[in-house]
Amino acid sequence: EKYNEALEKYESARTISEGQDTLVWMDALTNIGSINNRLGNFQESIDYYQESLVLQQAIGNEKAQFAILSNIGLANSQLDDQDGALQTYLDAIERAKAMELPAWIAHFQSKIGTLYYSKGYYSQSIAAYQDALVIRDSMQNTRMVAQLLFRIGRIHMQSEDEALALDYFNRSLETYQQID
């Protein structure tokens, strides 16, 4: 019920701001997309996210563009459109490379790793996580490095390579212990 209340408020904000206040309009579209996603209306959420994305691109709002692309990929995945999710993530990586935004490149590499993991494509998942790991390590993002090491260890455990899994789990733990 609270989602429906929020949806009504964002629909109202969208109607009032459309063509007048681009920032409010974009936020309303994004929030409507998020609520639809929570309600399980994945295609509707994608439609709203894509409307917002067009506006975000028009004003050059980089951070919001990438957050919305991440949401679109997730909604595609929830629709069981893994190919659509993968293509969204690959397109986002190309955009992030063009803008020299390594954190977003790593973010989407990690999303691809998770996508491949869910499909049981363990070697592709490890490769994507490794690509993200290299970037996160170069950025000295200790928390993300630890998480990626853990995810790679989990894949090796699934693949029944317990020795390698244990090595990654230990490296992950050691890395987590470096966090203040």
Catalogue the unreliable spans.
Answer: none
| Structural shape | elongated
Largest sheet: none
Number of helices: 9
Terminal CA distance reads 40 Å
N to C succession of SSEs = HHHHHHHHH
The portion of residues assigned to helices is: over 70%
Helical/strand content category: mainly alpha
**What is the C-alpha radius of gyration, as a whole number of Å?**
19 Å
How would you explain this protein's 3D organization?
- By secondary structure, the protein is mostly helical.
- Helices cover 84% and strands 0% of the residues.
- It has nine helices and no strands.
- It is elongated.
- The model has no long low-confidence stretch (mean pLDDT 94).
Give a summary of the structure in a few sentences:
By secondary structure, the chain is an all-alpha fold. It has helices at 2-17, 22-38, 42-59, 62-78, 82-98, 102-119, 122-138, 142-158, 162-176. It has nine helices and no strands.
Secondary-structure blueprint of this entry?
Blueprint lengths: L1 H16 L4 H17 L3 H18 L2 H17 L3 H17 L3 H18 L2 H17 L3 H17 L3 H15 L4
Helix pairs in contact: 1-2, 2-3, 3-4, 4-5, 5-6, 6-7, 7-8, 8-9
Keywords:
180 residues; mainly alpha; 9 helices; 84% helix
